[in-house]
Amino acid sequence: MDYAAYRRQFFVDPPPEPRFDVRGIGGASIFVEDFAAALAYYTAVLGPPDYVEGDDTRGWRLGNAWLTLFPSSEGGPRNADIQLELSSPEEAERLHGALIAAGGTGEAPSDELMYIPLRFCSATDPFGTQWVVYSPLPR
Fold first, then answer.
1. Which pLDDT belongs to residue 1?
2. What is the pLDDT of residue 79?
3. Which domain holds residue 130?
4. How far is 41 from 24, CA to CA, in rounded Å?
5. Do 38 and 72 form a contact (C-beta atoms < 8 A)?
6. Staple 38 to which of 13, 32, 85, 113, CB 3.0 to 4.6 Å?
7. What is the pLDDT along the chain (139 residues), one digit of tens a residue?
8. What is the rounded CA–CA span in Å between residue 71 and residue 39?
């Protein structure tokens, strides 16, 4: 299916008026049972955290949002995913590779139609969080 057909089939035209003036998503928080292992994993993938509060809070700046890691006595995330748009398909594949190299799992990157044509690189971290890493493709 080409993009024009995809838009006609799945998008409302004209689009509904937004109810709020949302500027973006400020961040995502992950609560994990094994905080030390999760901290080691995310440091291996993203580098050292940008924010450190006590022994139990770490934060990484991701574009205009924050990823915050917290310990949990109730287990890891349940049915959560984090979506990150990267600057290029190559950059999306690079992050996807880092998530897997550090111990995550995932399928090979693919080109998809998801609102727009994009390179889709999905991975799951060792703690159950789904990472949807993508980049728009040139049209």
1. 87
2. 67
3. 25-136
4. 26
5. no
6. 32
7. 899 999 999 999 999 998 887 777 778 999 998 999 999 999 999 999 999 999 999 999 999 899 999 998 777 667 678 989 989 999 999 999 999 999 999 999 999 998 889 999 999 999 999 998 999 998 7
8. 10
71/81 Cα distance (integer angstroms): 18
DSSP-H helix ranges across 25-103: 35-46, 89-101
Assign residue 91 the CATH number of its domain: 3.10.180.10
Q: Please tell me the total number of residues recorded for the chain in this structure.
A: 139
Has residue 93 been placed in a domain? yes
- Residue for token pair 């995809």: 6
Which residues fall within 8 angstroms of residue 40, CB to CB, at 6 or more apart? none
Q: How far apart are CA 32 and CA 15, in angstroms?
A: 38
Question: What's the rounded Cα separation, in Å, for the pair 29 and 22?
Answer: 19
Q: Name the DSSP class of 11.
A: S
88 found inside a domain:
yes
**Residues facing residue 22 across a β-bridge:** none
How far is the C-alpha of 95 from the C-alpha of 86, rounded, in Å? 9
Contact 37, 126 (CB under 8 A): yes
